[in-house]
Amino acid sequence: MKTLIRKNILELKPYSSARDEFKEAASVYLDANEFPVPSDFNRYPDSHHSLLKNAISKIKNVSEKNILIGNGSDEVIDIVLRTFCEPGIDNIIITPPTYGMYEVAAAINDIEVKRCDLEPNFELDFEKLKNQIDANTKVVFLCSPNNPTGKLLDFDAICDFVSQVSCMVLVDEAYIDFSDSRSMITKIDEFDNLIVSQTLSKFYGMAGLRVGLCFANSFLIEIFHKVKPPYNINILSQKIAIEELNSKDWGSSLRQILKDKQNLKAALLQQNCILQVFESDANFYLVKVANANNLYQYLIKKGIVVRNRSNQLHCENCLRITVGTAQENIELINALSEFV
Ligand SMILES: Cc1ncc(COP(=O)(O)O)c(C=O)c1O
User: Fold this and answer.
1) Which residues contact ligand 1 via a Cβ below 6 A?
2) Shortest-distance Cα residue to atom 12 of ligand 1
3) How far is CA 305 from CA 298, 301, 302, in A?
4) Does this model's pTM top 0.90?
């Protein structure tokens, strides 16, 4: 795995933040050109996110040395690309239809994107994927459960794949908390080419705080730490994320959203305008309709925004609908029932 890391990153002497150089507590801090009048945020945030990592390590049952926190998991994607991929030379592989940011982040970093399309039933052919890997493939992105399909990849199939390839594999588990599948986090000690990303934006309800999670072996986490911007998670996000994680009953929150999800599916299936509701392990449904553009525009007029995924591979006339609150779901269903 070490040989996959770009030479300039391996040799990188990271920015050393003011507080990194002096770790003991002091009474007077004149080292970082901060404004001296005390407030909740006149000091730079902890660049190591120590308290937040501690809270996450307890919830996810992972050692702190295996965790990196990104400004959303979108930042994790970018850090991974910049760590492994030589612009203009290396490539990544994605499995469309899938989350759009892999491609955008690759384009920003001038990294070629190869595609291994999912089958029309949204299954991934791992053999076909393996055959796409070449000498310049540095990272394969797997999304499980996948966005926009909601489909989970088989845990053992991912493990087999990771064990058989020599490039890095990033398993994006942004929606894993809604599924009953094991997380690939449990395999980071076994496979040194495995990176798992998760987020507090979806199940944990903190999209506005921008807290993304990355799990990997400790050597990689140290490298990623060198690459990330020193103060990527602000003081308030770190503080509020810890408070939220520790104060809420996540078990009952999951039960509630799964119940709402089930009710939404039952109601969707009764609508004449909905032709198919795809199975989903996430907090959204991909639905097939007769004319997605028409229905999308109609819902907009009713003040309801869903995601039109019609232009994605195998998603012709498909809308992606997030499970909202019970009241929001009722409003959606009422609007759909009035659609002619
Ligand atoms: C599959 C997937 N990965 C990552 C993200 C980004 O999440 P974050 O808010 O942590 O940046 C999203 C957001 O929609 C997503 O769907």
Assistant:
1) 72-74, 99, 143, 147, 172, 174, 199, 201, 207, 212
2) 174
3) 10, 9, 9
4) yes
